[in-house]
């Protein structure tokens, strides 16, 4: 099992309950592919470095989890097609 950090950037146009639903989908994906979630850091609404889809702000979430080496690829493939996710990045956290 490796440690990973997944950054998910969600649209600023979403309401609280919609953001919660998207985040729950991400959590279900991680557990579906054998991962265990250690924690979620919510950074809130931040200004983007550059405009994405005519938006200047977005919500940032960092999900820390343990999983096998094949899990991040599968998780990214599913997150890529989610409507309200603007950007995502999954990196392996060093010990």
Provide the descriptors you would attach to this structure in a database record.
alpha+beta; 95 residues; 4 strands; Alpha-Beta Plaits; single chain; globular; 51% strand
Q: How many runs of DSSP E, i.e. beta strands?
A: 4
User: Which second-level CATH architecture applies?
Assistant: 2-Layer Sandwich
**Low-pLDDT windows of residues:** none
- Cα separation of the termini: 12 Å
Sheet-strand content, in percent, reads: over 45%
Overall 3D shape: globular
In the residues, how many domains can be counted?
1
Helix content: 25-40%
CATH class: Alpha Beta
Structural class: alpha+beta
Mean residue pLDDT: 92
- CATH fold annotation: Alpha-Beta Plaits
Oligomer: single chain
Evaluate the radius of gyration.
13 Å
Assigned CATH superfamily = Ribosomal protein S6/Translation elongation factor EF1B
The arrangement of helices and strands along the chain is EHEEHE
Textual characterization of the structure:
- There is one protein chain.
- The chain has 95 residues and is of the alpha+beta class.
- The protein has a single domain (2-92), classed as 2-Layer Sandwich (Alpha-Beta Plaits).
- It contains two helices and four strands, in the order E-H-E-E-H-E.
- It has helices at residues 16-32, 71-79; strands spanning 2-11, 36-52, 55-67, 85-92.
- A four-stranded antiparallel beta sheet has the order 2-3-1-4, covered by helices on one side.
């Amino acid at each position: 099992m490796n440690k990973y950090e997944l950054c998910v950037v969600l649209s600023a146009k979403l309401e609280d309950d919609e953001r919660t639903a998207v985040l729950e989908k991400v959590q279900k994906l991680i557990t579906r592919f054998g991962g265990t979630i250690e924690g979620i850091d919510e950074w809130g609404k931040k200004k983007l470095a550059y405009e994405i889809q005519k938006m200047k702000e977005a919500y940032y979430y960092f999900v820390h989890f343990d999983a096998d080496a094949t899990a991040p690829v599968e998780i990214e493939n599913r997150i890529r097609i989610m409507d309200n996710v603007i950007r995502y990045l999954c990196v392996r956290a060093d010990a």
